[in-house]
Amino acid sequence: MSHSAEGPTPASDTLNDFTAAPSEARRVVVLISGNGSNLQALIDAQAYDELGGEIVAVISNRADAYGLKRARDAGIDAVALPHREYDSREAFDGALIKVIERHEPDLIVLAGFMRILTPLFVQRFYGRLLNIHPSLLPAYQGLDTHARALADGVTEHGCSVHFVTEELDGGPVVVQAAVTVDAEDDAASLKNKVHVREHLIYPIAVKWFLQGRLQLGSQGPTLDGMPLPPQGLRLSHADAAEELDEDQ
């Protein structure tokens, strides 16, 4: 249905507003459970017009999550939805779906959201769910990735942005950033090095999605219409260090 706003009619302003609607900012909802450092990276990217959209809500399953303060400080709707108030995982996810859909997001971003999502939730938002994981997937799915990498004596570690599927940390990878593991690294120092790379690549992946460049189709993820490799695009340690102005 097309409208013409030609001629001085009382409705012309309304019609102009109507026709401008498709150019409105793409909408993002971020799910967190804790500190929200990746959330802050996304907020900072938005402040510099580098996100490609607007964070319209931050939702936490923990009322004491510091990330909620980060959201409020940035003028973003901050919602606490404590999971312990629900009798089952399914009941919580059902409530979470309702809160999310109230904000009509184009994309849902998991930023340290420490809940295993039900199939109902994943299917509801399939293709619109991104997560970041502190390893070079498929290595070290699950928890304690830095300690496990150190125990194995690997020389390279990193982080991965991936679409969320029903397989925990098993969805298609979009982009990764590698970091060199040094002999003096412990779990804390390695975590810090990986965090810096998370804050680099997560806003980039979100922007690709909001610009329509990144999509998840039946054959897997594509960027600009081209299939992504199994481990997504990979930033080497040197590539990431250059982007971050680090000493290599």
TrEMBL record:
N(1)-(5-phospho-beta-D-ribosyl)glycinamide binds at G36, S37, N38. The gene is purN. This is Phosphoribosylglycinamide formyltransferase. Residues 27-205 form the Formyl transferase N-terminal domain. Pathway: Purine metabolism; IMP biosynthesis via de novo pathway; N(2)-formyl-N(1)-(5-phospho-D-ribosyl)glycinamide from N(1)-(5-phospho-D-ribosyl)glycinamide (10-formyl THF route): step 1/1. It comes from Halomonas salipaludis. InterPro entries: Formyl_transf_N (IPR002376), Formyl_transf_N_sf (IPR036477), GART (IPR004607), GART_AS (IPR001555). It catalyses: N(1)-(5-phospho-beta-D-ribosyl)glycinamide + (6R)-10-formyltetrahydrofolate = N(2)-formyl-N(1)-(5-phospho-beta-D-ribosyl)glycinamide + (6S)-5,6,7,8-tetrahydrofolate + H(+). The keyword Transferase applies. Its EC number is 2.1.2.2.
